[in-house]
Amino acid sequence: MTQALTNEEKSKDEFFQALARVAEDMVEKHGKEFASGALILAAQWVAQNRIGKKDDPMH
What we know:
With 59 residues, the protein is mainly alpha-helical.
């Protein structure tokens, strides 16, 4: 029997699906190198706590 996903697990799964769609679009339009570089840069910004700050050029 399969166990039902929690609300948190469902939310995380939705984010993974959205991220996959964005990555696929980037690869299609600009290639693997751009997509992987952009995703790595985004991961670095998250790790460095740069996402969501007012001085962040993304906001």
